């Protein structure tokens, strides 16, 4: 439960043949789940995203990026800090794998616009992915847009000197942050100082980059299903 790397693999595709059919798609959405999701949980989040986007008239493929976020003890108060920290480390490390997939896919299918959706800790995976992609100038504008739901990264990210430049460089069109001041999990994490000032709680602070927008929403709770239900348009 430390976030230590056990297997230093890159990503793998499942089912592999399905990905061959995505080559040449006009667009592609990649959904990244939050903490405490096993494989079944990850699949459920993709299905939720796919159904909601389809309901909103979006007709392009939606896939998921899963990482080992099912940290032991995350649901127990006495282990929460340690398991969340482990989850954050794992999320940061997995940004490298998602960045590799995006580079590889864009190489085989340069016309495809890639959009990323991240719920909760999935926002950390996206941020780490952008950091990795920003290391190469050919990745400028490689991601079309990013959508955060109940993001657990800090509220200064869209205005910070460090991340602002990277986001601006890698994301071509826009970043939309769906935040909720009534989110019970983020309120608790903020109060307990597990995450100081989560972006998904009260939105961004400071002067943000021009590609950044935010929208206050009132989901029933922190679950992705609740955030998906209040999503009114896409992309």
Automatic annotation (TrEMBL):
InterPro entries, alphabetized: AB_hydrolase_fold (IPR029058), DUF726 (IPR007941)
UniProt keyword annotation of Transmembrane present: yes
Segments crossing the lipid bilayer: none
GO CC annotation terms, alphabetical: membrane
Protein name as catalogued: DUF726 domain protein
Domain of life (superkingdom): Archaea
UniProt organism field: Nitrosarchaeum koreense MY1
Membrane topology: Multi-pass membrane protein
Keyword Transmembrane helix: yes
Keywords, alphabetical: Membrane, Transmembrane, Transmembrane helix
Major localization listed first in the record, in broad terms: membrane
A Pfam short name: DUF726
Localisation: Membrane
